[in-house]
Write a structure and sequence with these properties.
The complex is a heterodimer of chains A (410) and B (157). With 410 residues, chain A is mainly alpha-helical. Chain A folds into two domains: 10-59, no CATH class; 67-409, Orthogonal Bundle (Cytochrome-c3 Hydrogenase, chain B), CATH 1.10.645. Chain A has helices spanning 10-18, 67-71, 80-84, 91-106, 112-141, 144-165, 187-209, 213-219, 227-233, 238-241, 249-252, 273-297, 315-320, 322-334, 374-380, 382-386, 391-399, 405-409; strands at residues 27-31, 43-49, 52-59, 174-175, 178-179, 341-349, 352-360, 368-372. In chain A, a hairpin with a 2-residue loop joins strand 2 (43-49) and strand 3 (52-59). Chain A is globular. Chain B is built from three helices and seven strands. The termini of chain B are far apart. Chains A and B meet through helix 2, helix 9, strand 6, strand 7 and strand 8 of A and strand 3 and helix 3 of B.
Chain lengths: 410, 157
């Protein structure tokens, strides 16, 4: 800690800032960590010359919870619950990344119904995440009512999650080897009811925003950053697609049978906040296409893998078969052993590239888990993005990154 | 030395042709290629991979603590080439007595925070890093939480 009680190089910046260089005094402004538009606990140290930003230093770590350390003392199946809490706006994407990584180490086959169900629910998660983004981003910029519309649809999605898993947010529904529970009776009706109206709801958001002069004024031409800079800083996801790069792990390195679905990867070349908004709107339409395909073509069959040493046996079998009871006891008391090795499983989360690096030493706990989270990489580009622009645009610019601090700090 | 079974992998062969001493080993498992790179050569190999082999993205930098084995730390780099649609893992093994390795921020600016995180949580120093300070933990924190000899629980405050 420095003498000011503020961590890091704050003091150095303040001294530097107080030196008159252009004949005017520069001002040091701390935006956050409790600023509402930083969506959590991000702190930006801004050095201002009038209203222009000279330097911007993002300061993260306020939400660091040591999740990667926690992974080392949980069994593989227990650790699913940790992944929910990393990116709490897209819990199922994180469940999926973790499950796929461990399944790759175990080399077990997941039955088609479970795969399609995973696709459908991760796409619902993408909608959920984009809706929160759109609502809060609009509030930041000053359009209050959009939030209420977005949260109306989000509520429907959360109710679907609750129907499947019993939980609205921390679902933990994807387990290693398949799903946590059998899909509930009547889920098709609920999902169909939602997906029938959702595209018209997206039109509604667009009616509110796409031609709104205030929205256009606040977002067009704002938050520009070159594609080269973004790739260099490690930015991924809709930000890159907003700069014209057609990149999407679902297409490039398909997982969970995404190759069987028909969808487009939208791109824009304007590379500003408005383009990123358009990308996410279009992604919502594409996701609802995927959900409809999953709903209509859902294969029948088992929803968990045929791997008795990993997947808990059916209740009925436990009462009639000795082996099932033994497996149940073993899995619950000590977990299952995973062969030695390492994998880096990448999926496309709503925010960009989400990678799970899992190192196994052959025991029931992971030896080391590292999460390559999209928010962490995206946030690094903040300085390049906002330096030289006006302070009023910072809110729009960082909002367009769609970061989650739980995802950044882990 | 590059293991014989990896010679057919274009990237592995290219790195060996670039600098034969840089590769200390490697493996191809579960459809993922790993190359063990001599720690002293890491920045030059990364530069070669980025500018010559089109691995323009650094996905992440992290570390694994093999305590009490020596060399204790593995610094792990995940690279991604959009053009080749390939991923590559590099590993550099460094000693626990003096955990130090050259920075790759000279190749990708985005390595900045990743290396700071590894420094913060493992205590590995990256020489030549422009801004090497803690990122997750408070500045006055003692110890490196992700090391294997760091306890998982602490005393009650």
């Amino acid at each position: 800690m420095s003498e000011t009680g503020l961590p890091g190089n704050t003091l150095a910046v303040a001294e530097e800032a107080s030196q008159p260089q252009t004949g005017r005094r520069r001002m040091l402004l701390n935006m956050g960590p409790q600023h509402p538009s930083t969506h959590g606990v991000l702190r930006l140290q801004l050095e201002l010359d009038g209203e222009t930003i000279v330097t911007c230093r993002p300061d993260i770590g306020y939400l660091h919870t040591g999740i990667e350390k926690e992974f080392e003392v949980k069994t593989y199946q227990q650790a699913v619950t940790l992944t929910d809490r990393v990116d709490y706006l897209a819990p199922l994407s994180n469940n999926l990344g973790w499950a796929l990584a461990v399944e790759k180490l175990l080399q077990i086959e997941i039955p088609p119904q479970a795969q399609w169900m995973r696709v459908m629910l991760t796409e619902l998660t993408r909608l959920n995440s984009h809706l929160v983004w759109l609502g809060t981003h609009a509030i930041d910029i000053g359009a209050m009512s959009v939030f209420l519309y977005c949260f109306r649809e989000r509520e429907d999605i959360l109710r679907i999650f609750e129907m499947f898993s019993g939980q609205r947010m921390m679902t933990s529904y994807f387990r290693i080897g398949g799903l946590a529970l059998e899909p509930p009776r009547g889920w098709q009706k609920r999902v169909k009811a939602f997906i029938d109206v959702f595209p018209s709801r997206v039109d509604e958001y667009e009616n509110l925003l796409s031609n709104n002069p205030i929205w256009l004024g606040r977002t067009k031409g704002v938050g520009r950053i070159s594609l080269e800079d973004m790739l260099d800083w490690g930015v991924t996801g809709p930000m890159l697609r907003g700069a014209g790069l057609k990149i999407d792990t679902r297409k490039d390195q398909p997982y969970t049978s995404y190759e069987k679905f028909d969808f487009e990867v939208p791109t824009k070349t304007e590379n500003d906040v408005y383009a990123r908004y358009q990308i996410r709107i279009e992604e919502m339409r594409q996701s609802s296409r995927i959900i409809r395909q999953a709903l209509e073509g859902m294969p029948a069959g088992p929803w968990k893998a045929d791997a008795p040493h990993v997947v808990l046996p059916d209740r009925e079998k436990m009462k009639t078969q000795m082996e099932a009871l033994i497996y149940h006891f073993k899995i619950v008391t000590e977990g299952f052993r995973v062969p030695e090795g390492e994998v880096f499983q990448v999926i496309e989360s709503p925010r960009g590239e989400l990678g799970y690096y899992v190192v196994s030493d052959g025991t029931t706990n992971a030896y080391r888990v590292h999460m390559r989270t999209p928010s962490f990489g995206n946030l690094q580009a903040t300085s390049t993005m906002v330096e030289g622009t006006l302070i009023a645009d910072v809110i729009a610019a960082i909002g367009s990154m769609d970061f989650v601090l739980g995802d950044t700090d882990r | 030395m590059l293991p014989d079974n990896l010679r057919e992998r274009a990237v592995a062969a290219a790195v060996e042709a670039f600098d034969g001493d840089a590769i200390q080993g490697g493996k191809y498992e579960r459809e993922e290629l790993t190359l063990d790179i001599a720690p002293a050569k890491i920045a030059s190999v990364c530069g070669f991979l980025k500018y010559d082999q089109k691995f323009i993205r650094l996905s992440t930098v992290t570390a694994v603590d093999r305590y009490p084995a020596e060399p204790r730390f593995e610094v792990v780099y995940h690279l991604h080439s959009i053009e080749r649609n390939e991923r590559l893992r590099l590993k550099a093994r460094i000693s626990g007595a003096q955990p130090e390795i050259e920075t790759v921020t000279t190749v990708w600016r985005g390595a900045n925070w990743y290396e700071r995180e590894v420094f913060d949580l493992f205590g590995i120093r990256f020489t030549g890093h422009p801004d090497l300070r803690r990122i997750m933990m408070p500045d006055d924190w003692e110890g490196y939480p992700l090391r294997k000899d760091y306890p998982i629980t602490g005393t009650r405050v």
